[in-house]
Every structure is written in C-alpha cells, then in structure tokens.
Amino acid sequence: MSAPAAAPALAIVPPDAPQQLTARPGEREDHLRRVRTGGATACVIGGLLPVASAAASPWLHGWEFLGLAISFMILFPAGALAMFVCAVTTRERDDVKAMLLAAAVFAGGIALLEPAARAGTEAYVSSHATELDALAARVRAFTPPDVPMNPLLDDGVLLRDLLAHRLTSPRPVDGGLVFHTDGVFEPSLFYADGVAGAIPFDCRNLRAIGGRWYMADCPRSRNVYSD
After folding, report:
1. Rounded Cα gap, residues 138 and 141, in angstroms
2. What is the pLDDT of residues 205-215, one digit of tens each?
3. Which residues contact 157 (CB under 8 A, 6 or more apart)?
4. What global pTM score does this model have?
5. H/E segment holding residue 212
C-alpha cells in the first residue's frame, strides 16, 4: 500500500511590481518641439495678419478690425505663452531663438502697418479711379467753393456712395477737395480739381497716386454733412 501524497506547501508570493509608464526615448523632446513650432507659427501669423488686414482695409469695410483682434488678442498671446513655457521647461537655445523670432516679427508687423495701409489705399484709388472721379465731381457740385462749410447739405444718396468707398468728411480747400478715410492707418485723399476755395490748403506729405488724386496727411475738421 502506497503512502499518501504529501499536501502541497502553500507559500505567499508577493504580486509583481507595477510596471512604470516611461516615455519612449525622445518623445518628450518631440512634444516640446511641436509646441515650440506651433507657438512660433501662431506668432508669425499674428504678426503678419495685421499687415495684410491694413493693406486690404479699403476692400474689407471694417472687417480688418477682426483680423487685428484675432492677431493681437488670440494668436500672438497664445503663441508667445507656448514658447515661454517651452523656454522655462527646457532652457534650450532653440527656444530663445524662437522667442526672438516672434518678437522680431511682431515689431516688424507693427512698423509695416502704416506703409501697408498706404499701399492698399493707392491700389484702391487706382482700381476705382473712374468711380472716385465721378464721386468727387458730385461732391464739388454740392460744395460751393466760396464758403468754408456747407452744413445744410443733405444728400443721402451721395453720403451712401461716399461711405461705400469709406470716404468721410469731404471739405473744400484751395485747389480741390479733401476726403478722410475710416480705415486702419489710412491717409487722407486730396482731389486736385484746381477750384479756388476759402480754406487754405493745409495738407502735408502730398504724393500722387494717379489722375487728380493724391495721398496726404490732412488735419480733420467738421464734416460738411453735420448739422
């Protein structure tokens, strides 16, 4: 008769140690590089979009302010914050270069706003010369040259046509008509029709842009359409 089998010995075995979740080699660097690239791209777009908006403002009829708001309130702050976080985290030379690039683009964009607006105004006047000549002739017909202002002038159609071209505050000066614009950084316009007027010509930095039209820096005065 065989002996009974021995009972198995019970032993307490500790559970396996939890595996540590480690990032793959280079994954952290790739993530920071993507953040840095995205931040730099947002800053570049945020710096250049206002320039494009200023140049196209004669055609945008006020929508250029949306481009300025998106750039200065969303794109550039978000991009700058992303690059700042990367710079604080890694303290690498690439992050410093990216931040310097963003600052240079932002400063360059601010410096180019006024030249871009002037270039856009010149292009708009050149492409709408026939309409603007006819409009200036209509304004002259309602604006006696021997008085400084015509506060009783009330022509809704003429006013609507002026606003369609973003022209405001027409006034007669000695030698022509001055129009102001309501765009971003846009200069005033002088229409030289040679008609003598009671107001001395008081514009500076005159620059011919085609036909009888000139860009100029003119002081603003009371609108001839005001009561």
Report:
1. 5
2. 899 998 899 99
3. none
4. 0.72
5. none
